[in-house]
Amino acid sequence: MAAPVQPPYTPVVRAGDWVIVSGQLGMKDGALVPGGVLAQTAQAVVNLKAQLATMGATVNDIAKTLCFLTDMDTFPQFNESYAAGFGSARPARSTIGVKQLPFGGAVEIEAWAYLPAGAAKKKASGKKAAAKKSTAKKSAAKKPAAKKAVKKSAAKKVVAKKSAPKKTAKKSPARKKK
User: Fold this and answer.
1) Helix ranges (DSSP H) in the chain
2) What is the Cα 74 distance to its own chain's centre?
3) Model pTM greater than 0.70?
4) Helix (H/G/I), strand (E/B), else coil: 24
5) Can you say how many angstroms the Cα of residue 164 is from the centroid of all Cα atoms in its chain?
């Protein structure tokens, strides 16, 4: 059995400080999702986010999208689904009507994300640091009994020190007032 044919392009590439995602269709498991332009747009955004994630980027890093629709009459539905998928991110965008898209798709979205090469590493290490802090907080929350025992023994020492007789120090003759 022959290996599956690979498309003659790369789904996502880094070019200096840019992460460029090839056009994403509303496909899942090798087939277009049912539900027309609304569902295909939502899935195309999911696919776009997945490609960005492989490079350490998010939709918040996108500077520009280029969108293709086979029916410009579906623009309002496309726009609704696009806005929902992008949340508060609002990159520059062009939307172009085309005759056809591969696999009979109704929508295709490509993106250009700006992510300086060092920023992806910082994001990744920031996530790791946040995970470590979260783990540390959880383990600290699991140890209150040990802290109470330490506080009780410390309190006993304080009581013991208070009940011990005080020694009075004699003033040295050199410190007497003249």
Assistant:
1) 36-53, 75-86, 117-141, 144-163
2) 31
3) no
4) strand
5) 59
Taking alpha carbons only, the member of 42, 48, 52, 104 closest to residue 79 is 42
Q: Which residue has the higher pLDDT, 5 or 169?
A: 5
**Do residues 82 and 67 lie in contact, with contact meaning Cβ atoms separated by under 8 Å?**
yes
Nearest residue to 85 (alpha-carbon basis) of 132, 49, 118: 49
How many residues appear in the chain?
178
Q: In this predicted model, what pLDDT tens digit does every residue of 114-156 receive, in sequence order?
A: 999 877 666 655 555 555 555 445 444 444 444 444 444 444 4
Alpha helices (H) along 98-166: 117-141, 144-163
Angle (CA) 105 107 111, round 5°? 125
List, in order of start, the domains of the chain with CATH numbers: 12-116 (3.30.1330.40)
C-alpha 111 chain-centroid distance: 18
Is the Cβ–Cβ distance between 91 and 62 less than 8 Å? yes
Closest CA to 22 of 43, 48, 49, 50: 48
Closest among 51, 56, 62, 6 to 25, alpha carbons compared: 51
